[in-house]
Each structure stands twice: as structure tokens, then as C-alpha cells.
Sequence to fold (61 residues):
Amino acid sequence: MNILLLLVPISLVLLGIAIASFVWAVRRGQFDDLDTPAIDILREDSLPSPLHDPTEAKDAD
Fold:
């Protein structure tokens, strides 16, 4: 029963830290745009241009 005297304050401190970090994240704008990151993965990227044209004839010595 004496362990409750230790566990209850520890759990309240952890709860306070969790609430404070959630409020901090909301104020910093972490939850402003929840849709765009999910759509970004579906967006097609343009193909990168090759460094050299593979159709060019190579010099044969």
C-alpha cells in the first residue's frame, strides 16, 4: 500500500509532461496540415534527367 505514495505522484508528473508536450506540439504547428503528407507519397515525381545520353555513340578506338 505504501508503493501508491510513490506511484501516484510519479504518474501525475508523467501525465503533466505528456500534456505539456502535446500543448507544445500544437502551438508549434505540428498538427496544422495532416492531409498533405499523405498525398505527397502518391504524387508522381518527374524522372531525373540522365547525366549523359545513353543513345550517344561512344568513341571506339
User: Anything to note?
Assistant: The chain has a mean pLDDT of 81. The helical segments are 4-27, 36-40. DSSP finds two helices and no strands in the chain.
